[in-house]
């Protein structure tokens, strides 16, 4: 008994050392965000300092952080709702009324996800320029809806497949029409799956950084693009960068932590359970 | 299995149910938008790749034939970018897969605070690429004020100018840090589905921890590993944001990959024709990987 406890303690020390090494960059960012700019670049790194909130204030006031955050929120939620609106009916139909073509349709949807974005950067950029979608929220909503739709359909499909068929059968005996069937019977059962799918979509939209960097300038730029503006040499304010970064990743980190188990399904298209 | 049977019974006990519920209107919108999304940009990319088309030089128009491709394929920058792309993909894959397997085995053991440790270990995956790249570039890898420089100087090996002398290695490290949790998350899920009885039986037969790992755990993980490799490859072929905010492809072309080269041609040189030819190449590369990925997933999909 004693040896197993010792083994467990050794394992604990080892595993926590590894974990803290992995987490260190995020921890260090958090710590730096409470330093003054002078302390932030100090060598050796200052560990004991008086924490200050001035960076958070400065980022809010000077950099118009709120607008970028609102862009991120609007784009993520808008495109998630759109993807769900397209995806729920499709996944419902394929999960409950499979036909010969269901499998190939699913795989085809998946294959559209594998188109490298850079391969179609030029035409999308020109199309957006000519239609006035460049640097607009709606432009990014359209793109994100399309790139996430395959994942949304797949994830919903795998959740819907788990709803016991008996329940639908019982419902059909009473003779409701399909649409009522969908809402009355399926929703309570499918809601956790839909919620997880929505969260994954929000995470993917929030962190997307190819189209947001290339298709926005100032009006519709989300947080990914805002943070990128700190990369210019004259913009090197480490404490403010850290404060802005902390605010930018906090909501998504929490969502990710809450939904980590369900995410595997969406990220691997059900190939790993 | 029982579910599948039930559903089949359901369909059988309700003849005509599939006809009564017309599924086409439910599926058609998704298929239609994805079809447009797939065909229109692809067709335009192909079209542009055969055109003489530079936004800075509107006089230059007309059919270019294979000129854009010939120019691209004889451009030394392309081969540098291709080499960098392959190095980037290969190294990050090696680090994240090997590291991910080891981490998954570690998190499969019992230790105190495992739940919280797992949350901390998967956190990097949820950090947006521009944040992780800039935090690493400045706070950690800065050659004078970064934490790494301080550690290196303290132990007397001298600081490394990460982005000046070994930019590709620096980007490999950043991307690996972001994707290690992805591999961990998926491989841990797979490892936990391993049958306990099988492990117990092997242990009874006297298998040590290493034998257990190589003859039981690793074979069990093989499919999950292949899925991780393929999904990561598709993302890594077109790494962009991390390069954009750290090195801008430099110094010179030292950290320019295919995606970044296309970006340079398109949105800095405004060479639409040339960039489109590069885009076609990127699509072909991704499709080779995608073919195998879709096949693996298809084998796994029961409808």
How much β-strand is present in the residues of chain B?
Answer: under 5%
The largest sheet of chain B, given as strand count, sense and whether it forms a barrel, is: none
Order of helices and strands of chain B: HHHHHHHHHHHHHHH
Average pLDDT over all residues of chain B: 84
Could you say what the CATH topology of the largest domain in chain A is called? MetI-like fold
Strand content of chain A: under 5%
Tally the beta strands of chain A.
0
Cα separation of the termini of chain B: 11 Å
CATH top-level class of chain B:
Mainly Alpha
How many discrete domains of chain A? Answer: 2
DSSP, total strands of chain B: 0
Helix/sheet category of chain A: mainly alpha
How many domains of chain B, as an integer? 1
Please state the overall shape of chain B, judged from the principal axes of the Cα atoms: globular
At CATH level 2, the architecture of the largest domain in chain A is: Orthogonal Bundle
Low-confidence stretches of chain A: none
The portion of residues assigned to helices of chain A is: over 70%
What does the largest sheet of chain A look like? none
Report Rg of chain B: 25 Å
Q: Kindly report the name of the CATH homologous superfamily of chain B.
A: MetI-like
Structural commentary:
The complex is a heterodimer of chains A (about 270) and B (about 300). With about 270 residues, chain A is mainly α. Chain A has helices spanning about 1-30, 35-40, 55-60, 65-95, 100-110, 120-130, 135-160, 165-175, 180-205, 210-215, 225-230, 240-260, 260-265. In chain A, helix 3 packs across helix 12 (about 240-260) and helix 5 (about 100-110) packs antiparallel against helix 7. The two termini of chain A are about 35 Å apart. The mean pLDDT of chain A is about 85. With about 300 residues, chain B is mostly helical. Chain B has a single domain, classed as MetI-like (MetI-like fold). Classes of the chains: A mainly alpha (about 270), B mainly alpha (about 300). Chains A and B meet through helix 1, helix 4, helix 5, helix 6 and helix 7 of A and helix 1, helix 2, helix 3, helix 5 and helix 6 of B.
């Amino acid at each position: 008994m004693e040896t197993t406890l010792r083994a467990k303690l050794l394992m604990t020390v080892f595993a926590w050392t590894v974990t803290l090494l992995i987490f260190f960059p995020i921890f260090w960012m958090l710590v730096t965000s409470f330093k003054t700019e002078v302390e932030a670049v100090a060598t050796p790194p200052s560990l004991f300092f008086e924490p200050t909130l001035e960076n958070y204030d400065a980022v809010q006031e000077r950099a118009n952080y709120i607008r970028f955050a609102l862009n991120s929120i609007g784009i993520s939620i808008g495109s998630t709702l759109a993807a769900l609106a397209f995806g729920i009916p499709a996944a419902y139909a394929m999960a409950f009324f499979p036909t010969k073509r269901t499998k190939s349709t699913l795989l085809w949807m998946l294959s559209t996800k594998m188109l490298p974005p850079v391969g179609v950067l030029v035409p999308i950029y020109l199309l957006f320029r000519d239609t006035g979608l460049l640097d607009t929220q709606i432009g990014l909503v359209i793109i994100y809806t399309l790139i996430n739709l395959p994942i949304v359909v797949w994830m919903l499909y795998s959740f819907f497949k788990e709803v016991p068929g008996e329940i639908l059968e019982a419902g059909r005996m009473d003779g409701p029409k399909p649409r009522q069937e969908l809402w009355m019977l399926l929703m309570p059962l499918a809601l956790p799956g839909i919620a997880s799918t929505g969260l994954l979509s929000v995470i993917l939209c929030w962190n997307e950084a190819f189209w947001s960097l290339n298709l926005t300038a100032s009006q519709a730029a989300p947080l990914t693009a805002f943070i990128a503006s700190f990369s210019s040499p004259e913009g090197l304010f480490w404490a403010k960068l850290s404060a802005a970064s902390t605010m930018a990743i906090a909501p998504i980190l929490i969502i990710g932590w809450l939904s980590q188990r369900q995410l595997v399904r969406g990220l691997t298209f059900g190939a790993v359970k | 299995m029982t579910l599948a049977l039930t559903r089949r019974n359901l369909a059988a006990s309700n003849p005509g149910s599939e006809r009564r519920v017309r599924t086409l209107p439910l599926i058609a919108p998704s298929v239609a938008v994805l079809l447009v999304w797939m065909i229109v940009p692809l067709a335009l990319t192909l079209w542009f790749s055969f055109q003489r088309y530079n936004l800075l030089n509107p006089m230059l128009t007309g059919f270019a034939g294979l000129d854009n491709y010939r120019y691209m394929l004889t451009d030394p920058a392309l081969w540098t970018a291709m080499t960098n792309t392959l190095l980037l993909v290969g190294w990050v894959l090696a680090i994240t897969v090997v590291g991910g397997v080891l981490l998954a085995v570690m998190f499969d053991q019992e230790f105190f605070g495992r739940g919280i440790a797992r949350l901390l270990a998967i956190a990097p995956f949820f950090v947006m690429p521009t944040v992780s790249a800039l935090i690493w570039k400045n706070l950690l890898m800065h050659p004078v004020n970064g934490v790494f420089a301080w550690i290196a100087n303290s132990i007397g090996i001298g600081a490394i100018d990460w982005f000046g002398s070994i930019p590709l290695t620096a980007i490999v490290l950043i991307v690996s840090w972001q994707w290690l949790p992805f591999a961990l998350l998926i491989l841990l899920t797979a490892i936990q589905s391993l049958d306990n009885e099988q492990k117990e039986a092997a242990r009874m037969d006297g298998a040590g921890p290493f034998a257990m790992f190589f003859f039981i755990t690793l074979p069990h993980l093989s499919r999950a590993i292949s899925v991780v490799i393929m999904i990561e490859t598709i993302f890594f072929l077109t790494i962009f944001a991390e390069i954009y905010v750290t090195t801008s492809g430099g110094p010179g072309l030292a950290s320019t990959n295919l995606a970044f080269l296309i970006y340079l041609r398109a949105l800095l040189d405004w060479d639409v024709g040339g960039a489109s030819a590069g885009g076609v190449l990127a699509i072909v590369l991704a499709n080779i990987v995608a073919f195998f990925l879709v096949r693996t997933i298809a084998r796994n999909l029961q409808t």
